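chain below, 238 aa
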Amino acid sequence: MRSHTDLRVKVFADGADEEGIIKLAANPAIKGFTTNPTLMRAAGITDYEAFARRLVERIPDMPISFEVFADEFDEMERQAHKIASWGGTIYVKIPVTNTRREPSDALIKRLSGEGIRLNVTALLTLDQVSAVSAALAAGPACCISVFAGRIADTGCDPVPLMRKALEIMAPHSNQELIWASPRELLNIVQADEIGCHIITVTHDLLKKLPILGKDLAEYSLDTVKMFHNDAKTAGFTL
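prediction:
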């Protein structure tokens, strides 16, 4: 089994803990960063622009994605231009639809045509991948984020869908597939095995990354020791 140092898939840290992000930027296993309004709200961020600008200043040489939060396409477009102006390493996240299920394909094509690097997010179907890939075909480097973890949450195996997504995107060398919302380290191995370009991983899950490829017999012994030591520490008697 591969260790985390042998992965071909690029690991992007997904979160909004500023100091945690800065620490992860020094980790050679981390190749980029993503965040979103939900993560920022959970982290207590109140000034979106100030937070983003600080990160770009403190991490000037790694890709980082920031998301628009409007629901009307004209306002999404305005926000996208503003976010893109904050730094050359930024990818602007555009949702695949607005809250009324209206596809954002036209906006994606327009922004991409203007040279803005996009990370189109919240995709869960192959029809969405096909439409978004076509809209991004003539633009600069970009990412398509398929939420494989959410697909798995519904009881569907995401691997066949992610393989097909790679096939759909293959004619377009400017596009990278992101395996988004992983639920366990196994997802990193799965993404690596199918040739997915990027996987976004939360800070909590990244703490487990050194376990990847660990000898199972040794891991068994570690588990036995944990149970034994915790019983002793608790002072259990029978």
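The longest helix spans residues 216-234. The mean pLDDT is 96.
thats it, cya
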